[in-house]
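Subject: design request, 157 residues
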């Protein structure tokens, strides 16, 4: 019997793709830059009876930049299943493995940072956004090593 768990390539194995590291001409077409959100009404709900919470989440998701790609690839059903499972996972008595499934679905739809990288998607606003300051919203000024030294009085001897 062959042990499939040892060795071999796996989905999402190795380092995540880094759009900033890809500066060569041959890599330029591999990343899709999503500019703004999708406009217009969301598609028709493809599943049975939509709850009010599902309708709210459905509309919010179809306004995201990722929705441009979902529409291009006809992923209305996948997004609807994500919405249904997400609303089930929100309930207090939901199964723990349902939250895991929701996270995996969010990854595959490009709703998480790892999912965006795996799909090789970037949101245009991210490219021009300034870097966030370090530590709880405070700007940390770099100090020279000399300014950190403290003079200690002594007897000199």
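Subject: RE: design request

Done. Sequence follows.
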């Amino acid at each position: 019997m062959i042990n499939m768990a040892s060795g071999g390539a796996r989905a999402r194995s190795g380092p995540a793709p880094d759009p900033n590291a890809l500066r060569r001409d041959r890599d330029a077409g591999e990343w899709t830059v999503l500019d703004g959100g999708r406009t217009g009404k969301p598609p028709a709900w493809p599943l049975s009876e939509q709850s009010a919470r599902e309708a709210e989440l459905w509309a919010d998701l179809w306004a995201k930049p990722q929705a441009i790609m979902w529409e291009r690839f006809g992923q209305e059903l996948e997004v609807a299943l994500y919405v249904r499972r997400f609303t089930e996972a929100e309930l207090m008595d939901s199964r723990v493995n349902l939250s895991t499934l929701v996270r995996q679905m969010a990854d595959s739809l490009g709703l998480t940072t790892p999912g965006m990288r795996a799909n090789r998607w970037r949101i245009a606003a991210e490219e021009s956004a300034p870097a966030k300051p370090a530590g709880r919203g405070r700007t940390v000024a770099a100090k020279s090593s000399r300014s950190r030294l403290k003079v200690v009085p002594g007897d000199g001897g």
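The mean pLDDT is 80.
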